[in-house]
Design a protein that fits this description.
The protein has one helix spanning 2-21; strands spanning 38-40, 46-50, 56-63, 75-76, 84-88, 95-103, 106-109, 113-116, 125-129, 134-138, 141-145, 150-154, 160-166, 190-193, 197-205, 212-214, 221-226, 240-242, 247-248, 255-258, 265-272, 278-286, 291-292, 299-307, 312-319. It is mainly beta and 320 residues long.
Length: 320
């Protein structure tokens, strides 16, 4: 009886061992280098996925989506029935992969891994302005008050490493030695501009040092620093008379009246939103004429009125 029990115990442990081995996982040289369950490609290179030795294999792929949960189907990859699978950065980015295996009477699937397109994020620049110190004068062009500053940030700081920042559009990219547009010493993912110029950058990905991107001339931002008329909003107290004008109705949904009969005509009327942007301007405005503000977004606004003597009045109103 005892030898029989020993044999049964041995047989049971053998079965457990077979079952334990039917637990596939995926490995590859680049998997998990930056993220635990992802492969990041550099350019269009290839990567070989592999799993443990089993009786049979079938590899599957699923397209990535923002949707949670991912409802895209898992599809078998034709001919992918060996222990390894080669994928590439051109065709397989933004796909999940898994492998189904059999070993005797055991059938199992591996956890999924992803071939990510993170490293291919194109460069993008975020511009941060101080409210009340700027006015947009065209696509990608701004007038900035002297003494103010504009902050530029790479939108993908985790992706890109060392930067080259420009103060004008360069003659070539990558940057060449002695290019006068290069800002010496500016290598971080942020730059603060305090003088006129056209700003942008060139940067290489941290994960793939040989993979570099130029922001593109169409995405450069042009800044014109100077003592612009709107800059007096917070500084020219000698000529401004606070709230000396009648503004009615206030709040208003459509028409706004401003002024006093003694002034008759105002040389210039400027309506400014809370970010400092001029959203409506009118010249030679009569005090008894209605200003149509129906197209303005509801919120708080500042209105600057300049009379014929050069006095500037500042009032606030609410657009309903």
């Amino acid at each position: 009886m005892k030898p029989k029990l020993i044999f049964l115990a041995f047989l049971f442990m053998t079965i457990l061992n077979i079952k334990a081995q039917c637990n596939p996982t995926i490995t590859s040289p680049r998997l998990g280098v930056k993220f635990p369950d992802k492969i990041l490609f550099c350019n269009t290179e290839t990567e070989t996925l592999s799993t443990q030795t089993f009786g049979s294999y079938q590899w599957y792929k699923q397209q990535w989506t923002w949707q949670t949960p991912n409802t895209n189907p898992w599809t078998p990859i034709p001919g992918a029935v060996s222990q390894t699978l080669t994928i590439n950065g051109n065709d397989d980015q933004l796909y999940y992969f898994k492998v189904a295996v059999t070993q005797g009477d055991c059938v199992a699937e591996s956890p999924a891994i992803m071939a990510d397109g993170f490293v291919y994020g194109l460069p993008s620049m975020l511009s941060t302005f101080t409210p009340g110190t700027f006015s947009q004068v065209g696509l990608g062009e701004y007038n900035i008050c002297a003494g103010a500053s504009v902050k530029f940030d790479d939108v993908f700081p985790d992706l890109y490493g060392s930067h080259v920042w420009y103060k004008c559009i360069p003659s070539s990219a990558p940057p060449s030695n002695g290019d006068p547009c290069v800002i010496n010493g500016a290598t971080g993912d942020t730059y603060i501009a305090t003088e006129s110029g056209e700003y942008g950058f060139y940067a290489c990905t941290e994960y793939c040092p040989d993979q570099c991107e130029f922001l593109g001339t169409g995405n450069f931002v042009k800044l014109n620093f100077g003592n612009w008329e709107f800059c007096s909003l917070g500084t020219d107290e000698t000529k401004r008379k606070e709230s000396n004008l009648k503004i009615y109705p206030n709040p208003t949904a459509q028409f706004l009246y401003i002024g006093k009969e003694s002034d008759k005509i105002y040389k210039e009327i400027s309506i400014i939103d809370m970010s400092g942007k001029i959203v409506l301007q009118k010249n030679d405005h009569r005090f008894n004429e209605a200003i149509d503000v129906s197209r303005l977004v509801p919120g708080n606004y500042i209105i600057l009125s300049k009379d014929s003597q050069g006095n500037t009045y500042k009032n606030k109103f609410i657009k309903k």
